[in-house]
Amino acid sequence: MSLQPRPWPEVPPLTARVARAAFPKGNLAMRIRDELGVVYEDGRFTGAFGVRGRPGISPAQLMMATVLQFSENLTDRQAADAVRDRMSWKYALGLDLDDPGFDASVFSEFRARLVEGDLATHALDALLARLVAEGLLKAGGR
User: Fold this and answer.
1) Which among 1, 30, 62, 92 is most buried, taking Cβ atoms within 10 Å?
2) C-alpha to C-alpha distances, 72 to 23, 100, 138, nearest whole angstrom
3) Any residues with CB less than 8 A from the CB of 17 and at least 6 apart, and which?
4) Over pLDDT 90: what percentage of the chain?
């Protein structure tokens, strides 16, 4: 799997329309996207991915899916199912409603790459910085 950085995707219009019809006030996944904006960019993960081979799934989207997984205390299989069948997750990740998602094993492979590339701390720091910037968390964690 190789990294070919892509910009953070906009929410596809149909995904946005359907998600807003179902959740007019949004839900956690939708609010994370709406209130935090772009938290992760593919370029931040270059140390964990090669430059040759078939383009992989966007690491920024995988990281956001991992954040959603953690926020709901889901297993890898449950999180992969959520990417496939929950419109609010598709909204948060900027996916079309008919996007097939990915296999559950991608989560553990991604976490291993984060650890091997020494990027886990950087990924957490990016999220914490956005939370502080939006006033959802005080600097220093208090």
Assistant:
1) 92
2) 18, 21, 22
3) none
4) 49
* Predicted confidence (pLDDT) per residue in 81-108, tens digit: 999 999 999 999 999 999 999 999 999 9
What is the rounded CA–CA span in Å between residue 121 and residue 118? 7
**pLDDT recorded at residue 51:** 58
Please determine, for residue 12, whether its predicted confidence score (pLDDT) is greater than 60: yes
Helix (H) or strand (E) holding 129: helix 120-133
Domain residue spans of the chain: 13-135
CA distance 63 to 47: 14
| Cα–Cα distance, 65 to 39 (Å, whole number) | 12
d(CA 68, CA 89): 8
Question: Which sign does the torsion angle of CA 97, 80, 93, 99 carry?
Answer: negative
Handedness of CA 123, 4, 62, 109 (dihedral sign): negative
CA 128 to chain centre: 14
pLDDT digits (tens, 9 = 90+) for 14-55: 999 999 999 999 999 999 899 888 888 877 777 666 655 555
